[in-house]
Amino acid sequence: MSETPDTAGERTAKVRVFLVDDHHLFLSGVRAELGDAVEVVGDADEVGAAIELIVERLPDVVLVDVHMPDGGGQAVIEAVGRTHPEVRFLALSVSDAAEDVIGVIRAGARGYVTKTISGPQLTDAVERVAGGDAVFSPRLAGFVLDAFAADPSAAGGAVPSFDPELDQLTPREREVLRLIARGYAYKEVARELSISVKTVESHVSAVLRKLQLSSRHQLTRWATERRLL
Amino acid sequence: MAGGVAGGLSARFGIDANLIRFAFILVALGAGAGLAAYVVAWLLVPAEGDTTSIGRRALADRRTVALALASITLLVVVLLVLAALGLGFAANLIGPVSIAAGGLVLVWRGADAAERAHLAELVGRAPLIGSPERHTRRATVARVVVGVVLAIVGLANLVAARGPALPTIRAVLAVNVVIVGVLIVFGPWWLRLARDLAVERRERVRNEERANMAAAVHDSVLQTLALIQRAAGDHGEVVRLARAQERELRAWLFEGRSPGSFNDADVSTITQAVSMIERDVEASHRVAVETVTVGDCELTAALRALLAAGREATVNAATWSGAPTVSLFVEVESGRVSVFVRDRGQGFDPDAVGPDHQGIAESIRARMARHGGSAVIRSASGQGTEVELVMPRTEADP
Q: Which ipTM did the prediction report?
């Protein structure tokens, strides 16, 4: 489905989406933006209720706000993920603090987009996450490039890496992230690098995996330091 | 003395300045080498608070170098003629005197306005040369006569003093008399030549100033006028734009804060400058600027220029592309800093932009080139635009 993201809305079965946000205005806004392209199966405005309802209705994708009282999106993702790993999460935020963004991704979200995203783009992102792919906003791509800096000393100290497979980005992954950070859509990245959209998606998914599994000390330290700036 | 070399050396090495001056004079009396050494030091040692020496500035100008070489050649020829006349010691003077003369030309051409004023005053104080403006016909005739007589007397003395029992002091005196004679005849002409050079240099500075001014006016006033034309129907928007522009112009004219630059004390790093661009462009153009910054470093003059060009590219995209969002990506690497500005708007043909449009030519390309960076603009009608700016980081950058 993801080869043709522009026409993905024409699929027979609509993606079932659940919304979690403590701003009611925003909840109704997102509902309107998503429109008929997906099926919104419910929403919640606090962490406890959200976990309960998600487990009860088992949506394909949960759109979750990063910032909420009682632990925010991270708490929801961790609680649901323990029992229902098949539910996929896409984080939405206005805050762009690296600490929060890296936090929700490492908790298990399959992507991160800013709330300024347009309706069709959001629909596209939801479809993509439902299909098992990762969604990187330009800013998330920038964070990852920064955290996985080629020069370890630039990322804050020469911590020995125990798993180079997980702790480093390949040059190709770096290229893909750089283009995403420059504002290229997956399709445009594919054209620029003369590879298929599918390959771009697998590169991004690989990066997401590294982001979630890497034991790299720099990652957490980098995110905290960045906050202090 | 003249160039403050002795004072500078004394400050550097902790020796009394007068001692150094005395040493210079001694060596100068000996074979003229002291004079050469003095001028060369003048060239190479930067003035206090200055980063480049006069010599380096002078050598950057091809015409200066040519002029210096020409005067050296002329002197060598004169001294060779003297030597051929049988004046043995003249041959010894060739080296030091040519170096000193060539050096003096370099000093004059490389000196900045303040140094030049100092030099002019120094020359004006010489009693016999006088000021070229005050010369009347009679004065000119008198001067030439006195000069030629002095030169002939000196030369005659030199010729008479030929022989094995040549008294050195007398020869030196004779040479000095010749030099004074030549100075009296040619002094005013040299002075006028030097003034012409100063005028030419001032003209060049003024042209550069005009280019900077044009870039600044384009970045602010012309951009705003374009916005006002587009918003002509919206009364409130026009007023808002005009007010913002008025504030900016006032800040420029009366507080010296040039528009579109990052000279403010509160912007010292890349990240700060990028968020400033985001804030300013979003506020004045009502488009979303999606910024991504990877890495960070202190701003240098070259990086300020890079970001000023980046801001200009962002403003262009916000004004002309028609796209609701503009992506601004800045990456700091160990060897360079790159800026990418991308929009998905209508695009344009970069070759079809008229020469009277300063935006790309002056504010982006020339600004980057002046600091050793590069600018690439990719655009096609209907396919959006991407501007790529790369500035190498020099060793001096922290």
A: 0.74
